[in-house]
Structure formats: C-alpha cells, structure tokens
Design a protein that fits this description.
Two copies of one chain form a homodimer.
Chain A lengths: L12 H18 L6 H8 L3 H8 L2 H8 L6 H4 L11 H14 L3 H13 L5 H18 L6 H22 L9 H17 L4
InterPro entries (chains A, B): Homeodomain-like_sf, HTH-type_TetR-like_transc_reg, HTH_TetR, Tet_transcr_reg_TetR-rel_C_sf, TetR_C_16
Pfam families (chains A, B): TetR_C_16, TetR_N
Protein name (chains A, B): Putative TetR family transcriptional regulator
C-alpha cells in the first residue's frame, strides 16, 4: 500500500513478523531446547543480534512467538516470598488470577489452537521447559523429582483451565479464585512438596 | 447406488444415521437433561419406540451419538466392590486403563473435536450428567456436594488425559497405570470422600 514492498528493514513490522513466523516454525518442529536464536534469525533472514535486540532472551522470544501475553516467571514470581506450606495455594491464585484477568481470551484462543493441532509441540515445550523452569527456580524443587512434580501440577491446573474456560463446567466455571484455591491448593501443595510415592 | 433412495426404513443404516444426527444436534443445543428421546425421534422423522429399540436408554443414545465407545457406568462399575478408601485409585485405574486400551484413538479424536468447537456442550453434558451419574451411583457420594466432587475429579482426570494423550508430556505420558494411580489416586480420593473446605 505504501510502496515499501520488497526489502525487509531491521525492526520494521515485517521483520518482526518474519522472526516470529520463523520462531513458531522452529519451536514447533524442534522444541524449545532444540531451537537456537541463531536458527530463528537465519530462518527470518536477519542477524541474531537483531532478534535479541527486539525480543530479548530465547524464552522471551518463545513467549512472543506463541502469543503468551505474560512470562510465567513473572506470574509465579510470588512463590519466592511465601512460606513453603502456601506454595500450592499461591500457584493456584497466580495462574487463575492471570487467566481470569485481561488475558483470558488470548489464553483460550491459544489453548484451543494448540489442542487442535496434532503436530504441535508448543504446549509440551511450554509446560516442559518454560513452566518447569519458572516453578523449579521459584519453588526450589528437588531437581531429581522436579519434572514429575511440575507435570503433576500442570495436570491439575491444566484440568481446571480446561473445565473453567473451555468446557465451562459448573461449579468449576463459576467458583471464585478463593474457592478454587481452597479446593485445588492442597493438591498442588502435595505435588510440589510431599514425598513422592 | 442401490436404488433405495428416498424412503427411510426403520432400522436401516440411514435411519440410524438420522437418529444419531438428530441426537447430536439436540444434545449440543439443549444438553442432556433438556433433550428427550421423543424430540430426537421427531428430529429424525421416526417413532420414539424405534429409537429405544435400537439405542436403548437416553444415556446409551447419548454415548452412541458422541461416539463414546463404552458406558462410564461400566468403566466405573468396579467402585461398588472396593473399600471406600480405595475409591480414588480405582477411578484412576479404570479411566486410564480404558484410555490406554483399544479406545485410545477414538477417545483422542472425540476430545480434540469437542475442544475445538466453541459451541459444543457435549463435554459439559458428558461430565456433568453422565460421569456425575455414574460416580454418584457407584461411589455413593453425598448428594449436597456430589456436583462439586465430580467436577474436581474431572479436573484432575481430565488434566491427566490432556497431558498424557494430547500434549504428550513426560513423565505423565510414559508413566505406567500403577505409577499414575500412586500419584493421582490420593487426589481423587480426597475429592471424593474428604470434607469439603
């Protein structure tokens, strides 16, 4: 429309779009750890330094690429400052509070899109690398059991997100955050801190 | 192809198909309790007695309409015969054993299809009426809290189905049924039998 066809300018909207498209493709194909910022940059035809300049770390690039509007490390950052016995309830309040807020529609769209695509590994990458990293760092999990603990927490929280926002099953859909924290918090606490069976 | 166009014969494949199509439409629009066998029959242009003859009860018709290959009342029937303290583990073993078996592909296809359709109420109906009925009858739940207990159980089991069969997140995806029962059984037990917070 404006005559700016052809050349791709660093930082212009089409450069950002090309980087994000390249990132989505590579993260889906190779997962989080198998994807380098350099490879994303090459896929977009730009320099890796430019990718870092515009999107920050690889984790921040991933979150931008899959349109997750807030970094789980920020959502779960409160875990540092609560007593260990309140970790479960704090996780539930942080996640449900986030989803109940402004990000609800984006979250539902992302979840639905990822669930419908049999080839996508985005959710696996998101839970297995991003959430696991945030939980492990903020909740001080035993490294030997951290992957299992994170997956169990994800199963309980994921099931709640599914029933509350996608299926719309009452009373899960209509419970307050306080009620959900009372019901689900002890489960998450057990998965995070109790001895493994 | 065979010249049998036009007239719909009782019990012929096109009659069965018409009944199932009418059932899917009405269950999705009106939910389980809001749909009568008579209305399904009217929608298909056949007699209600014929629907009962070919599909049995309304619950059996629902299961056939949404292509759920086995009745939850059968899967959960074992709950009658176990000590009350083993209800949680028994539920986990019954559901995961069922999904790990021959019905895995059909289950995944159904779950994916229902999650992608924002208008569908099939999963809500399935959990809220069919599963709730089977759990309530077989696990002898307190009627005042049965809906909440069932929804909480569904959130934990649903999250496991999601991570194990759709997302494919390890170690949930690769755990044995025994391991899953040890991890998740106590959660389901708590939701079924512990005092509500």
């Amino acid at each position: 429309m404006t005559g700016r066809r052809g050349g791709r300018r660093p930082g212009s909207p089409d450069t950002r779009g090309a980087v994000l498209a390249s990132a989505r493709t590579l993260f889906a194909e190779r997962g989080f750890t198998g994807t380098s910022v350099r490879a994303v940059a090459e896929g977009a035809g730009v320099d890796a330094a430019l990718v870092h300049h515009y999107f920050g770390t690889k984790r921040e690039l991933f979150l931008a690429a899959v349109a997750i509007p807030l970094d789980p490390a920020v959502v779960l950052g409160a875990l540092h400052s609560v007593p260990r016995a309140q970790l479960g309830e704090t996780v539930v309040r942080a996640v449900i509070g986030f989803w109940d807020g402004d990000h609800r529609e984006a979250g539902i769209a992302l979840l639905r899109a990822q669930l419908t695509d049999p080839e996508s590994t985005i959710l696996r990458t998101f839970i297995g690398d991003i959430i696991a990293g945030a939980l492990g760092a903020n909740a001080d999990l035993d490294p030997d059991t951290a992957a299992t603990r994170t997956a169990l927490v994800a199963s309980q929280i994921g099931g709640i997100l599914l029933l509350r926002y996608i299926v719309g099953l009452d009373p899960i859909a209509s419970m307050s955050v306080d009620e959900l924290a009372a019901h689900i918090g002890p489960t998450v606490q057990r998965y995070l801190t109790d001895p493994m069976p």
